[in-house]
Write a structure and sequence with these properties.
The longest helix is centred in the last third of the chain and has 41 residues. This protein is an all-alpha fold. Helix 1 crosses helix 3. It is built from five helices and no strands. Among the domains are: about 45 residues, no CATH class; about 40 residues.
């Protein structure tokens, strides 16, 4: 024997969704049992269609065009600063290696003394 086709009114669907969202019903299974709703996905569908709780975990960001442009400028500036930092780091590594090589060539055992002589500090 097949299941009877049930039609629920708009008001009934909204009532169930409201009771779930306000906590009057603790879960979907409780709603199904209390109101004799047979379909397993029926209430989930109603929640997506009529409910508000599915919006709670979403962030909606409203920006003016000026704010968007400012954000783009800030991101470009960050990229520029990151590149400058990487270049400075490379310069430092090169300087250290140059100093080591110069110390080896000049038989200098103390790189710090060598730097002081050359005013690298």
């Amino acid at each position: 024997m097949s299941k009877p086709l049930m039609r629920y009114s708009e008001a009934f669907k909204r009532k169930i969704v409201n009771e779930l969202e306000t906590g009057k019903l603790s879960c979907i299974n409780e709603a199904r049992k209390r109101y004799g709703i047979i379909g397993c996905g029926t209430i989930q569908y109603w929640l997506r269609k009529y409910g508000k709780n599915h919006l709670l975990n979403k962030v909606v960001k409203v920006q003016t065009l000026d704010e968007k442009d400012e954000l783009k400028r800030q991101k470009a500036r960050i990229r520029q600063l990151e590149k400058a930092l990487a270049d400075a780091h490379l310069d430092l590594v090169i300087e250290r290696e140059y100093c080591k090589m110069a110390c080896e060539v000049g038989n200098i055992d103390d790189p710090e003394r060598f730097k002081k002589k050359l005013n690298l500090h």
